[in-house]
Amino acid sequence: MKIAYLVNTYPRNSLTFIRREILALERQGWDIYRFALRSDRSALVDPADMAEDARTEHVLELGAGKLMMSALGWMAKHPVGAVRAVGMALRCGARADGVTPGTGGRMRHLIYLAEAAHLARRCHDLRLTHLHAHFGTNSTTVAMLSAMMGGPEYSFTVHGPEEFDAPRTLCLGLKADRAAFAVAISSFGRSQLCRWTAAGTWPRLHVVHCGIEPWRFPDPTPMPAGGPHLVAIGRLSEQKGFALLIEAVAQAVQTLPDLHLTLVGDGALRPQIEAAIAGHGLGRHVTLTGWLDEARVREALGGAQALIVPSFAEGLPVVIMEAMAAGRPVIATSIAGIPELVTPDTGWLVPAGNGAALAQAMQDMASTPPDRLTAMGQAARLRVLDRHDINHEAEKLTELFASKGHVG
User: Fold this and answer.
1) Which residues pair with 306 in a beta bridge?
2) Which CATH number is 23's domain given?
3) Which of 6, 227, 291, 348 could disulfide-link to 35, CB 3.0 to 4.6 Å?
4) One domain, residues 306 and 201
5) DSSP annotation string for 115-142
6) Residues 157 and 260 in one domain
7) At what angle do helices 16-27 and 390-403 cross, to 10 degrees?
8) Tens-of-pLDDT digits for all 408 residues of the chain?
9) Are 153 and 12 contained in the same domain?
10) How far is the first Cα of the chain from the last one, in angstroms, to the nearest whole number?
């Protein structure tokens, strides 16, 4: 009942769903040892994330010299596996060379090799027999190379969209073919894994949703009057579509003079978002809060009549689950796993990249009678609690870990 989890950077403000998953597994009797390649502790705002950081072993904090000594010592004891792992690292690194920024080339994959050898040693010392990685990027590369050098068997969860943007570069199919099992957070995600894996691997590809903790979402607060009031939550990055959302708000306020958007989040595009808000003269219509902890995010949801998600690319956003659990309907782009959760009785789906459609959805929401909005929120709450209870989803993982991924 003792296994390890591996994430590239953990914990992070945007990865609370992984913490919830680990805690749910621990409630079911699993002893989870946390590994991460690096920490993001300087950016953490939630005390729960800070506590999780203290419980996590961060591989790169060992330092380059000690990491190399540990890795070379382990590889010397496992020469056959080490030679194979070197070949695999060079193979995956060759696909990455000059193709996708951030995935690195052969040199970076040799660094992953050192991390993997050290991780295999640590798992051996701690008697960890299974390693589960989150995201099919470098963390799963490290898990795969570790298994080749005598480390524990591995599994991994893909989220999207990053893994599906560059599946060949990331050797995604190869990682899934060699894993004990692979998990996607939506049926759409599983379909993308099927694209890049051998048909014989498909029975080992499973859907386990990201989950919410229902007890943190008591009966919803009443739908606020006035407005319309919308909230958007997420990283201020290209894929989230917030720049387009600001344009859509600028269109919508022409006929909705009391429209207000609370935008919760931070990121590299914050200066551009702030400039767009100022350029459109939306200072009184848009509030940009920066990052908020979980309690204050729930407050922001309670103060809105709907969540709006204008993303260009996604997996299946946890913020949609949280909004629905809070009894709020959702306006979202119809991409990836989102239509699996948001339905016509719980919100509005619009084409991605279409600012006019976003503005029209705001109009539709504003013209919806309050009792209908409340009914939509109630339907949303029932749907998400039925499909995304973290304890139920952890039970699915428990079955997979217990069976080592074998069908039946």
Assistant:
1) 230
2) 3.40.50.2000
3) 6
4) no
5) HHHHHHHHHHHTT--EEEEESTTHHHHH
6) no
7) 70
8) 899 999 999 999 889 999 999 999 999 999 999 999 999 999 998 899 999 999 999 999 999 999 999 999 999 999 999 999 999 999 998 876 655 555 668 899 999 999 999 999 999 999 999 999 999 999 999 999 999 999 999 999 999 999 999 999 999 999 999 999 999 999 999 999 999 999 999 999 999 999 999 999 989 999 999 889 999 999 999 999 999 999 999 999 999 999 999 999 999 999 999 999 999 999 999 999 998 888 899 899 999 999 999 999 999 999 999 999 999 999 999 999 999 999 999 999 999 999 999 999 999 999 999 999 999 999 999 999 999 999 999 999 999 999 864 332
9) yes
10) 20
pTM: 0.93
Check whether residue 19 and residue 161 sit in a common domain.
yes
Four-CA torsion 335, 294, 5, 133, nearest 10 degrees? 20
From residue 91, alpha-carbon distances to 24, 40, 167, 174 in Å are 37, 30, 14, 11
* Residue 118 shares a structural domain with residue 230: no
Backbone angles phi, psi at 303, to 5 degrees: -85, 0
Domain assignment present for residue 289? The answer is: yes
Q: DSSP secondary structure string, 143-196?
A: HHHHHHTT--EEEEEE-SSHHHHSTTTTTHHHHHHHSSEEEESSHHHHHHHHHH
Task: Answer yes or no: do 62 and 188 share one domain.
Answer: yes
| 135 Rama sector, left if φ>0, alpha if ψ -120 to 50, beta otherwise | left
Pair (271, 198) in one structural domain: no
User: Does some domain include residue 375?
Assistant: yes
Q: How many domains does the chain have?
A: 2
How far apart are the C-alpha atoms of 83 and 335, rounded to whole Å?
Answer: 42
**408 belongs to a structural domain:** no
Q: What is the dihedral of CA 179, 182, 138, 162, to 10 degrees?
A: 150
One-letter amino acid of 386 = D
My answer on whether 236 and 286 are in the same domain is yes
